[in-house]
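Worked example 2:
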Amino acid sequence: MPVTSPYAARLAEIPVERREVQVLGATTAYWVYGEAAEDAPTIVAVHGFRGEHHGLEPIVAYLPGIRIISPDLPGFGETPPIPDREHDLGLYTGWLCEFARAVAPGAIILGHSFGSIVSAAAVAGGLETPRLILINPIGAPALEGPKGVLTRIAVLYYALGARLPERWGTALLRHPLTVRAMSVAMAKTRDRALRRFIHDQHDTYFSRFADREVLHDAFVTSASHDVRAFAGVIDVPTLLIAAQRDDITPIEAERRLAMMFPQAELVEIAEVGHLIHYETPAEAAGAIRRFLRLPAAPVR
């Protein structure tokens, strides 16, 4: 039975175009939402671990009038890995800097989850942007989160996937039951239709990684870094959109993280966890509009 996105009608009203650009010697696939306007801001949106650009579309749906450029990270979705490179934080940071300068110099930078680490590191390293937006930012080591035991299980899972014979390891990493378990663990909504949509999104897109080596590199990077390392040197206005029930970074850690930035605003969203982009995209988009001093989106 087909699963209909609750955000499909809004998203259908926003024009979208797929494009490609050469970055670090490889092709990056990206999507441009909205039409360019002289007075409209442009946002470069960086998705999270194991995801790709589709995951941020519910937020895009609530941001008409804003031009949003959403690439697939190297090794995920339709963007192949960077040849002969370890996909560590240095690789992803360098990729984002080159990508943003090539397609949208001076754009606002937005990162979700793992994308928050990449975005913060890039801006701290010199990527010019007037403002930074971090959704579900990784504000503390994952092993110290409220479900640190589950994170340790994930470490073993990704290590096993990397060490098994390639066929078996890849099958483990892409196994539908594993993907569904991750999805169930992260979803907080009690809305059955919305839960079906979330699970369908993860079933469809969560295994679109290029190979197990890239996936393992990205996981190690996500588990080894957090935004705190870069907060103190980011001197542009920053918006943190955090969930009060996030199992990866507890809200108390997000509050401490906000204090580490020279200029940061924290917006907390109740009754949601690490899937703000799926469960409460309207609230996230509203916070973004207020941060950018833009009028509210039309109510339908």
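Residues 16 and 33 are 4 Å apart (CA to CA). The beta strands are 16-23, 26-33, 42-46, 67-71, 108-112, 132-135, 238-243, 264-269.
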